[in-house]
Amino acid sequence: MADTKRIKHAKQVRVIPGFGLTLGITIAMLSLLIIIPLASVLLYSFQLNPSEFWKLITAQNVINAFKASIICALIAALINSVFGLILAWVLVKYEFPGKRLLDGLIELPFALPTAVAGITLSKMYSNTGFPGSFFSSIGIDISYTHIGIVIALIFIGIPFTVRAVQPVLEKLDGQYEEAAYILGASRTKTFFKVIFPELFPSLLTGFGLALARGIGEYGSVIYISGNSAKNGTQVVSYVIMQKLERMDYASATAIALVLLIISFLLLFAVNIIQIRRSRRISVR
Amino acid sequence: MEIFDEKQLKAKKRTKYILITISALFLIFMLVLPLISVIVNSLREGIAFYFEALSTQYVTSALVVTLIATLFAVGVNTFFGIVASWVLTRFEFKGKNVLSTLIDIPFSISPVIAGLAFIMTFGRLGWASPIIEWINETLGTDIQIVFAIPGVVLATIFVTFPFVSREIVPVLNTVGHDEEEAAALMGAGGFKIFRKITFPHIKWALLYGVILCTARALGEFGAVHALSKARGKTFTLPLEIDALYMSGSADSITASFAVSSLLVFIAVIVLVFRNVFEYRTKNKSKKVKSGE
What we know:
Chain A is mainly α.
């Protein structure tokens, strides 16, 4: 009796048909293709006892890899936030010839296979390529160093920050800017006190996405980094792959689990920022 | 009252040119130069060598494997994308945010983990490997997942999973669901509503999602790298590029750039299409706003 009532109520709310079917298909496919395989990683890593797990993830080369990945991804995401803001600003606020070309190019790192980006960047920034030969002549080696990793991560991360800021900037009302200006604020002050706070959540979202992508990045990094254990230029994904190739599944899953947790925390943070922002907009 | 006097206007113009210059330099160095570099490197040994490098047995085999994986990935993810975006935009339900976050997982995790996940499921240690063995024994088949084509296909599906739904969801959110509701109240069935009302709204977004998914599937490297070990059998184009590049001789490095140039052309086509698509949708929303 109560059940039929509930069903009737649900039907009243959902006029459009197909809820049960589409939700079922969505959850089934998501589980089979994404969740269950990932859960297998968890399942296996839970079989390790805690002290063993701890020993595996605190091995010196693993710690070094996490350091390299996290620090390089942080630096790259910061640089991308600055350039992402500038690029989004230029694309939204200004008109100039070649703007559409510029706009289209931003998405290149999404479309270009990571391995292709990796070998090209590695070649360009080695001491025989351009602009690598220039940098090495003034004493800066880029390929096979941490700077190389940062360059690759800047390449891979730039669309995230631009595309996060751009739509918000487009919607930003010009009247706050004008009001601040009429009230006597300088242009710099207007930017930092009025515009920047409005853009900050989206910039943070872009930063988070670029960071998450950068920490786990594999294809575009492994050629330019040189993967030297001595110089600490192995990234986490490379170490996981190395363990897999040596059939050291315990280490591979333990490291992967830590990397997964980091990614989930970042994804979670980004989602909270987005939900809070959409609430703020709807309150207005 | 004049808001900006002449001096300030000048300063404003100066900022504009400085910012445009910075942007252009950044994009030229970070994005354009790599593209040119691929082409230059691929032609280092001449045109004849270029075509020879593209027609080796390894490359043709890799091309076939890549196309198979891409076909499956695009098919599965297009179907999923349409269904998932329908459920995410047409209904309100508990856990909607969680569901949409879960769909986005493949975006933010390392592709290597995707490969590892399938090894841990179907590999020697995986819980599903006895099931596969049992199927093989009872049916007399020889199905292999890990280190075989099915593994490559699964890994490709995994990494491109959210691509189509991500393009459709924002479009459907903007359109709203009043039209579908009206149609449903007038007695139209679900499939008819989709075909007559929803589909015309999303066809461009769907096409763009499919193209983006194709590009990513063709170029996936990390996940497939973990699951594919046999050059000439289960290697995809990016793995072949890796193998050629890592073998280290000048000739094979040039060959690896030649294979790369194929994928660069596809990437450029995707970008051109994206531009056209974006231009269309922008014009359309302008028209809607101005009430045409």
